[in-house]
User: Fold this.
Amino acid sequence: MTSLLVIGAGRMAEAIISGLVAEEKNIFSSITVSNASNKDRLSRLKLTYGVHVTQDAISEVASHDVILLAAPPDAHNYLLEQLKEVVDHQLILTVAAGIDPAYIETRLNTRTPVAWIMPNTAASIGESMSTFTCGKYVENHHRTIINYILSSIGESEELSAEKVHDLTAITGSAPAFLYAFALGLEEAAVNYGVSRKQARKLVTHMLKGSVSMLEHNGEPQQLMDQVASPGGSTAKGLEILNEQGFTSMLKDAVKATNNHARTHNQ
Assistant:
């Protein structure tokens, strides 16, 4: 059996732990979660998921097979300096934006198998669309573990490190853009006299139905044409979006997100 050490106890760490413990056949014989400062959170995770907890992650590394780094990107340099002294070919995973396998391999300076996985917050309900990329020392049995973890929280796609960098904003950050869009529609609905609760229901189910249409028919332009008859009311609304540079604005938001993720972790 395989043992997992999660370094960090934030939302993404909890989402992954929740997905793993919900699996009928969990490949991990034990899961240990570490957090240096928040004992109350560790206690809650232990009570909720039945995991082991510790405030001293480094002392636990030698007795675990897989190490999942769920710490912020700017904590990785210090963390990797500590791990360098104790890692002995364990599989190292990180969920931190901008921290690719080469970044970790260089700092560990060993033939350590490393992978960068990028879930999004929908992991908390088992609906993440995760991207991931593997380092040069990852073998097939490591890949089995990586795929198992990712399948417990949703769907995944393996890409090159460069593509994971490029698509960080699309799969990782764009949910926030979508929520901003939803909030704007809610506010527009409230301005027409419905309650906030009614507005939330209207917008949420509209989005849900639209996503289902994408899943079943798959062609955004064709679906858009079905809604927007030439010269009709919807077409007038799309005209305003085009005039305001809606598509360009999204592309700029993606670019800004990716640039920050890259430069923040150099």
Notes: The first strand starts at residue 2 and ends at 7. The radius of gyration is 21 Å.
